[in-house]
Structure formats: C-alpha cells, structure tokens
C-alpha cells in the first residue's frame, strides 16, 4: 500500500473533482485525485464503438453554460453546432406523425394554447426561484409536497398539454416519472437552465458539441495534473477529524488537510467513514436517487433523414423513444441518430432480451424517420444504471419533500470533508457546466478555510 501526503485529497476524477483539483494546484496546494474507474471523466466518456466515435455520456453545450465554455477555451477545445436544418417530427397519442418547425408541437389549437399557458406559468415561477437556494422560495414547502404530475393536473385538464410539458422535465431531464418528483424539483431543473422556455428549446439546450468529444475536458485536465491523478483507486474508507483526513483506496493511502468527495451523492454512502458522518448527512443521502435513461446511438451509411427534409429532431411522450436528434459526429460522412428511452420505458425494455430491446427501440426510431432507421451499421445503448460508479443517468434528484427539507445541507462541509458534483449545482444542475461551477466553488471554499 503506497502512502502519500497532500494538502487535499479529491475522491472522483469527474469534471467537478478535476476542476477543484486544478484550481487548488493553481493556488499552490498539493493534491491527489483518487478515481475508482480505470479512466477519468465519470459521466463523460467518448469512445470508439465499432468504428464510430460516440458520446456515451454527456455531450451537449448550451449558450448560457459560461463555466463550461470558459473551461473549453482554457483547454483549447472547439465546438460545432448540432445539425438542425429542416422539419422536426411529432407523434401524438393516436400515433399520428406530423412535421413542424419552431418549439411548439403541432397539436390542436386548444392544446397549443394550454401548452403556451403552462410554459408562461412555469417561466414566471422559475423567475422567482434562485437555483442556488430553491428551498428559500416562500412556497418551497408547498411546491415540494406536490408531484410535478399532480401540479400539472391542477393547471390544465388537457392531457396532451400535460404529457408534453411533463416530458420536458420528466423523461427528458430528471429521467423519472413526473409522479416521482416534486414541482419544486421541476422548478429547480428549469431555473438551473435559466428558464423553462430554455428547456423546451432544443436549439438552446442542445446547441453545440465538442470536437473530439466532451471527455476531452476531464482528459486534458487530468493530463495537466499529471502524476497526481490515480485511476483504479476506489476509496473505501475515509477517516476524518479536526486535524485532517486519511483516504484509503485499494492501493493508496492519502493523508491530507481536506477531502473533496466529488462523487454523485448516491455514492457518498459507498465509502465507510470513521467516525460516521453526522445524522443529517446519513439522512439526506437517503432522499436522493439517480434517474434512469438509455441513450441509444444508431449510425447509418448516410444521414438519410436530411434528404427527406428532416432535421433529425423528434419528440413524443407516447413513444418508447421520447426524443431523438441528429447526432452525426464532426467530420464523419455517416449519419448518426441519438434517441433516449427514460424511466419506466427503460424499465420495460431492460426486462426483455437485448435483441428484442434493440428491435423495439429501432421500431420507435422508424416511427419518426421511416423504415431506413431499422438497419443501422452501428447500434449502441449506454447503460449507466449498470455502472458500479454511477448507477443511473443523468443525475440524482430528491424524492418528494426532500429538496425543501435537506437541500440547504447538501453541500455543507462536514469538518474537513467538502462535497462537489453536478448533482449539487444550482445553475447548471445535472450538467457539466454545474459540475465545473461547483468544482470552482469547492476549491474556493477550501482556500478560504485553510
Ligand atoms: P461524475 O459522476 O462524472 O464523476 C464522479 C467520479 O467519481 C466518477 O469518475 C466515479 O468513477 C468516481 N467515484 C465514485 N465513487 C468513487 C469512490 N468511492 N472512489 C473513487 N472514485 C469514485 N451533461 C451536459 O452538460 N450535457 C449533456 O448533453 C449531458 N448528457 C448526458 C448524458 C448521459 C447519458 C449522462 C450519463 C450524463 C449526461 N450529462 C450531460 C450529465 C453530465 O455528464 C454530468 O452532470 C457530469 O459529467 C457530472 O460530473 P461530476 O464530476 O459531477 O460527476
């Protein structure tokens, strides 16, 4: 067992932990980053699958994500736009397919009116929410007691309007059914992206991608940190007291003045603490859980949908694949579609054999794009729920009532232990931008406390 001493030990080499480590080193502190996996990046993972470069985890950058954009510039990374020329596809509850442009789906006039009304109402509520302190809203408790599904029912009797608006937060963001999280949690999700309108606008929220893949961010940060990043080192035990910490992984023991747990909050309890964490932390970590989504890539000889005048963007809360996009890789002449199967739909297809799951998912893509979608060259399902060191996707959110009750304590340090992760962010919550933002803030808190 190797034993090293540093000012700060960082547990987790995702975007958040590596950002904190980078800032601390810049400020003259010594660090060791212990990473459980055999690679850095956590939920950022760009890989070659059967000859196609695919983003298995996070990939999109939106215009307001200035913390991420600053990091991209610092690392010398460039971006390119998502392909979006042409018409989008919408499929209604009756299975009828129609084409549209802009953000509002082609629905009956009354449904459209109800959807616009809901978007306006949500935008107004979101404008009152501070994403860093949603629990401070005067109605926080009330909004945290009602599920987002039930809240939508109190606003409109139009089922299709509710299904569509619900989808933007439920299937598309928190990747949990709308009855499984509160209206306050939904408002935090929208506030973290600036407004609910921004979430509805795919051209905003899914604007750009990074040349070479978004995993370049953690890879280049780790490269700069050099020998201070240790992979294959799951931290099993963290001893802590007023004079510092000792982190014990499978091969290394690090003693340090501070520790940063830069892991998804659902994994904090995987580490043994000596002495145990306080009651408050024991409780609050039990009220967070990961969503579940399958990100499916299908690569074709050509982007055939473009010839049909389609952008590749498709939505339907009634389809197995509730949203899909043109995800063709920069410089690759082939065409790639990416589709998402979330929450209970993911449960359903994980219950059947892999071959049948593939058939069902491709059949859903074919409903949007036609028969050609049935025969990709390359097909890949990202399965983050099976990953020991993530356990779901995209991120963690509170159960009903949890955000108002525990939110303020989520990032409160415990003695020398600090917490850092995208799942604890206000602005950029559940996104790489939030991971980086919280990483900067955690490093600043340690520099102020030393
Ligand atoms: P992250 O989970 O990345 O890092 C934590 C690290 O800790 C991991 O490397 C893990 O192995 C390690 N670890 C855990 N326990 C440990 C232990 N005991 N000891 C040592 N190491 C330990 N975001 C976005 O901005 N745009 C997008 O398009 C998407 N899309 C998207 C798709 C999919 C499929 C996923 C899964 C996620 C996204 N996201 C996204 C979300 C984004 O990827 C995510 O918010 C950040 O990458 C999280 O970074 P963190 O560093 O906070 O955690």
TrEMBL record:
The keyword Flavoprotein does not apply. Substrate binds at residue 340. One of its GO terms (molecular function) is oxidoreductase activity. It holds the Pfam family Amino_oxidase. Gene3D superfamilies: FAD/NAD(P)-binding domain. Residues 16-447 form the Amine oxidase domain. Belongs to the flavin monoamine oxidase family. This is FAD-dependent oxidoreductase.
């Amino acid at each position: 067992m190797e034993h090293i001493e540093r000012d700060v030990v960082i547990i987790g080499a995702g975007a958040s932990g590596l950002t904190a480590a980078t800032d601390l080193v810049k400020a003259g502190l010594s660090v060791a980053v212990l990473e459980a996996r055999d690679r850095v990046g956590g939920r950022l993972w760009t890989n070659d699958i059967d000859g196609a470069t695919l983003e298995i985890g996070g990939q999109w950058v939106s215009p307001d994500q200035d913390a991420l954009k600053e990091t991209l510039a610092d690392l010398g990374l460039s971006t390119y736009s998502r392909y979006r020329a042409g018409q989008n596809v919408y499929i209604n509850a009756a299975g009828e397919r129609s084409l549209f442009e802009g953000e509002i789906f082609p629905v009956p006039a009354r449904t459209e009116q109800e959807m616009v009304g809901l978007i306006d109402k949500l935008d107004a509520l979101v404008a009152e929410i501070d994403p860093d302190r949603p629990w401070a809203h005067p109605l926080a408790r009330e909004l945290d007691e009602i599920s987002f599904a039930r809240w939508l029912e109190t606003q409109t009797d139009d089922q299709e309007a509710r299904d569509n608006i619900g989808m933007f937060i439920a299937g598309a963001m928190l990747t949990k059914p709308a009855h499984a999280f509160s209206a306050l949690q939904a408002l935090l999700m929208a506030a973290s992206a600036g407004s609910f309108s921004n979430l509805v606008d795919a051209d905003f929220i899914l604007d750009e991608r990074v040349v070479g893949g978004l995993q370049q961010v953690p890879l280049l940060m780790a490269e700069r940190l050099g020998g201070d990043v240790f992979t294959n080192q799951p931290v099993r035990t963290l001893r802590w007291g007023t004079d510092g910490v000792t982190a014990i992984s499978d091969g290394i023991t690090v003693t340090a003045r501070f520790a940063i747990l830069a892991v998804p909050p659902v994994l904090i309890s995987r580490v043994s603490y000596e002495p145990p964490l306080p009651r408050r932390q024991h409780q609050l970590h039990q009220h967070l859980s990961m969503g579940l989504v399958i990100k499916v890539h299908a690569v074709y000889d050509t982007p055939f949908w473009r010839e049909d005048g389609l952008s590749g963007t498709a939505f339907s809360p009634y389809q197995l694949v509730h949203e899909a996009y043109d995800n063709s890789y920069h410089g690759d002449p082939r065409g790639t579609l990416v589709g998402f199967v979330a929450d209970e739909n993911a449960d359903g297809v994980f219950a059947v054999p892999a071959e049948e799951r593939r058939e069902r998912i491709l059949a859903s893509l074919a409903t949007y794009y036609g028969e050609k979608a049935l025969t990709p060259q390359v097909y890949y399902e990202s399965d983050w729920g099976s990953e020991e060191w993530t356990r779901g996707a995209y991120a963690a959110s509170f159960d009903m009532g949890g955000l108002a009750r525990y939110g303020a304590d989520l990032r409160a340090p415990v003695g020398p232990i600090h917490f850092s992760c995208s799942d604890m962010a206000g602005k950029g919550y559940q996104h790489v931008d939030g991971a980086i933002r919280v990483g900067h803030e955690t490093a600043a808190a340690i520099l102020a406390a030393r």
